[in-house]
Amino acid sequence: MYNFDFVKPSTLDEAVAALGGEDAQPLSGGQTLLPSMKQRLNAPGVLVSLTGIAALKGVSMEGRLLVIGGATPHAVVAAEVASAYPALAALAGGIGDPAVRNRGTIGGSLANNDPSACYPSAALGSGATIVTNNREIAADDFFTGMFETALEPGEIITAVKFPVPEKAAYAKFQQPASRFALTGAYVAKYGDGVRVAITGASEGGVFRWTEAEEALSRSFTAEALNGLSLPEDGMMGDLHGTPAYRAHLCAVMTRRAVTAAR
Amino acid sequence: MPKDGGIGASTKRREDIRFLTGRGVYTDDLNLHGQTFAVFCRSTVAHGKIVSINTAATEAMPGVLAVFTGQDFKDVGGNPAGWLINSRDGTPMREPKRPVLAHGKVRHVGDAYAAVIAETYAQAKDAAEQLAADTVIDELPAIVDMKAAVADPSNRVHDEIPDNLCFDWGWIEDNRAAVDEVFKTAPHVTTLELVNNRLVPNAMEPRASIGEYFPGTGDYKLTTTSQNPHLTRLLIAAFVMGIPENKLQVVAPDVGGGFGSKIYHYGEEAVVLAAAKKLKRPVRWTAERSESFLSDAHGRDHVTKIELACEKDGTFLAFRTETLANVGAYLSNFSTATPTFLHGTLMAGPYKVPKVYVNVKTVFTNTAPVDAYRGAGRPEATFSLERVIDKMCRELGLDQFEVRRKNFITPDMYPYTTPVGLVYDTGNYHATLDKALEMTDLAGFEARAAEAKARGKLRGLGLSTWIEACGIAPSNLVGVLGSRVGLYDAATVRVNATGNISVMTGAHSHGQGHETVFAQIVAEKLGVDATSVEIVHGDTAKIPFGMGSYGSRSLAVCGSAIDRAMGKIIAKGKKIAAHMLEAAEGDIEFKDGTFSVAGTDKAKTFGEIAFSAYVPHNYPLETLEPGLEETAFYDPGNFTYPAGAYLCEVEVDPDTGKVQVVAFHCADDFGNIMNPMIVEGQVHGGVGQGIGQALCENTTYDENGQLTSASFMDYAMPRADDVPFYNVDYSCQTPCTHNPLGVKGCGEAGAIGSPPAVVNAVIDALHRGGYDHVTHIDMPVSPARVWAAMQKH
Ligand SMILES: Cc1cc2nc3c(=O)[nH]c(=O)nc-3n(C[C@H](O)[C@H](O)[C@H](O)COP(=O)(O)OP(=O)(O)OC[C@H]3O[C@@H](n4cnc5c(N)ncnc54)[C@H](O)[C@@H]3O)c2cc1C
């Protein structure tokens, strides 16, 4: 790790100001950023901690929208949205291990947009809105590619608003080593249709499987997916799975999510 | 009634109190006055020519005290291979010198070519980064694949070795023609090509070393993560640095796991000693986890073709194998023994197969050195045998249990000389197989499989009947086989004046529980309370010259040395008692801690004898020396031969290919058992590692020699939910016939016996599910591989 300066503001305005400085970067749970700094792969000059800002933390309902503060740890989501949005709580409770869940945050996960991360599929699969310090971004516009998002430099995710579906589930097939999603499917059924978001599969990062959405909107059953498959072109291939295997898992995990949805 | 102390009791591990309360003292826990920090520059390319290393800018950096490069060590070094292996044509193996720091060329990613010593770790780290930037290395094509390495003489890991071959070994070469003859006429031949996957040992504690030099006396001290401090001292003294043995103290304090990887002497140890001498200050280094992945000696990595010739009824006629064994870029200390005498000699298994021939070509590649890892050679032998037997049973439609029974050596055949050079002293393989079947509830298997099927899972059952040679090792025998060291061990039993006992052992405990078990044995044999017995290990200044712990040798060899030393203590105690009780020595009996005159009530307690030994007021000094301390060296007469039967049940998810081990039954014969709880723990750990190898762990280099599984993000260690609740039995006991405790060793058993049981179970599950085109899947049998195998209709 290289030397860096550390600031821990207590308001969003202070954080935004601090991030205006040269080489500044937000630090949330640090579960992604700190390991990369330890390996000297990342060297911000100033770390601006977000976890001292009360307004960025916690869970609330705004009408039918579930609002989660950007610096809310996974463990809090797992515990506090269990009745409001059980599928999301289950996803949060399945990330990493207790230490990771107690530090890692939803804002950090979405900002990072790891192609194998869990949360991006929930945000995209729920049609969530990502709220930042200066705008609101629809999930459909937010994830722009592997480790890429619509965030501008210095822009902070302050909250994520989830429309609560009638039914939903996340089915994750664990990568054997990291236990991120080797491939995961998030399925959510709303009054006006079904959304299906796939993570861990595409070289472009999280994406919506529109054929599956159409089929499931007609009939929300695993059988409705029969015969549907995704092409292996553009799927990731690595030690843990070929593109063909991942394409196959997309269908398997989507079926499982449909079956598990509640 | 279970005992609550002494031999056979499940005494709780006394060392766990300090380990579990954070009071263990590991190398990195030591903070020394004036200490400095070493950081190594490691190659980022697999193969390259070192063009230049410009140290000027680095030396000028804040806090930098010294910079070392390969040039500084070019006249020392030569960390040797411990075994000389001859090729089939009689020529000795090729032995390229292993330098302390690479010079001329770097030969694997992670190969250290320079070291920077600085006042702080951060300064050393910054300086090493600078030095790397000021180093020019011309990348050469990497040699990664073993088949390509031996086929292409133009590209060489070591310039003087044209075909990248270390040796081409035949075992037993004289039997080759006869074995070939059997294959020509055999009624059935089963052939299997397989890979024994390379593993990274991943001890919980990374390697760490601290060098110290004392200018007043010229003494050196090395504190290091070693499984065998005396061996490390010998290597540094006699081969690498020329420090006199009596000027070098090597201490291995608490060590957090080794699994073989900490047997060997590594260059970092020499660097911290040389730097300590130069700076006259302590120099410390602790590996980062990434360094461990790149530079610890890896394990396994064999590519094997095995053939089994048999009758149509499954009676074995011969085994024949051809193996390419990867040694990596340099010869690590045991690397030449592992694929040969720890592998080829086991290729008869527990079977009365008349003919066996083993060929091993050991190959240099631009990868990390490969050496012994829990089981070392024997897992490779067992995997090849048990997989090919399983395949043969399927080909001929034979019952796997009956085929094993038909071919087992029977209890009336001992001592049994195998066609691969070992003499098994005792065993009962039918008994362990019967026991395992009883534990499994074989009759209920079909119902379990049907129930699994209702849940969409394919259930399978896999068997492995394994044997190993451990209790390493009889020096006479290994000397004939090429070992350059003896493999005896030593113990000193020191009875202190106040009657408590210090036992100095050559064994080294890095998780095994010696402090508990050895104390149990001493307490039982000397009739004293175990709490009055301390086990001292890991410091060359305190213990007699012993060879350390690996090869399931601690109890069988080091424990036997303790037993021998206790025998001498008792003999001496009788002399003292005879004097004190004014009786003839021959009339003194020793029982339950009391020396008495036979047939009388005249007696002295152990404590009284000890006190007298150190307060020898009217001793007849011509015939009786004061003191009560004895040392024994024990060299075993043979290997020990633990054996057993493992049955594994798995469920395969046909949608994803994921394998779950749902039951694992172990029936082992370890001879006499000293502490059942510790035996169970060793089996659990070994089987866990075996399941890890079978299902999870894989070390992969890409075609450029980059380690693509270089962190826990990609290297899958087995975790709690990857393993089942084990069912362990050790009631089948044929005590070892040649060591005083009748023990065989249990440390490696689980890692040796389990991988084929798991893979056989997966193949069984797939066949039962209709995927009978799948004849083999290489380890790790990962979800992706199982799924891919199922697709090929
Ligand atoms: C062992 C381990 C296992 C894991 N397993 C999983 C898993 O199974 N599934 C999974 O999805 N993830 C997993 N993770 C990742 C984990 O969820 C991280 O917490 C998450 O990816 C990043 O969140 P963080 O709060 O730690 O962010 P940080 O590491 O603090 O930051 C990550 C990045 O986001 C930026 N950032 C942080 N917060 C904000 C914000 N509010 N606005 C804008 N930018 C911001 C940072 O500048 C940085 O670039 C695992 C991590 C570890 C260490």
TrEMBL record, chain A:
Lineage top rank: taxon: Bacteria
Q: Which InterPro entries match?
A: CO_DH_flav_C, CO_DH_flav_C_dom_sf, Diverse_Substr_Oxidored, FAD-bd_PCMH, FAD-bd_PCMH-like_sf, FAD-bd_PCMH_sub1, FAD-bd_PCMH_sub2, Mopterin_DH_FAD-bd
- A Pfam family recorded for this sequence: FAD_binding_5
Keywords for the protein's UniProt record, in alphabetical order = FAD, Flavoprotein, Oxidoreductase
Q: Does the keyword Oxidoreductase apply?
A: yes
Check the record and name the PROSITE patterns matching this protein.
FAD_PCMH (PS51387)
Enumerate the GO terms in the molecular function aspect. Answer: FAD binding; oxidoreductase activity
Membrane spanning stretches: none
**Oxidoreductase found in the keyword field:** yes
Residue stretches making up the FAD-binding PCMH-type domain:
1-167
Q: Which SUPFAM superfamilies match?
A: CO dehydrogenase flavoprotein C-terminal domain-like, FAD-binding/transporter-associated domain-like
State the name under which the record lists this protein.
Carbon monoxide dehydrogenase
Q: Lineage, please?
A: Bacteria, Pseudomonadati, Pseudomonadota, Alphaproteobacteria, Rhodobacterales
From TrEMBL, chain B:
GO MF term (any one): oxidoreductase activity
Q: Could you confirm whether the keyword Disulfide bond appears in this record? A: no
Question: Any keyword Oxidoreductase?
Answer: yes
- Keywords tagged on the record: Molybdenum, Oxidoreductase
InterPro entries, per this entry?
Answer: Ald_Oxase/Xan_DH_a/b (IPR000674), Ald_Oxase/Xan_DH_a/b_sf (IPR036856), Ald_Oxase/xanthine_DH-like (IPR016208), AldOxase/xan_DH_MoCoBD1 (IPR008274), AldOxase/xan_DH_MoCoBD2 (IPR046867), AldOxase/xan_DH_Mopterin-bd_sf (IPR037165)
Give the domain of life.
Answer: Bacteria
SMART domains assigned: Ald_Xan_dh_C
Ranges for the Aldehyde oxidase/xanthine dehydrogenase a/b hammerhead domain? 21-141
Q: What is this protein called?
A: Carbon monoxide dehydrogenase
Native source species: Pararhodobacter aggregans
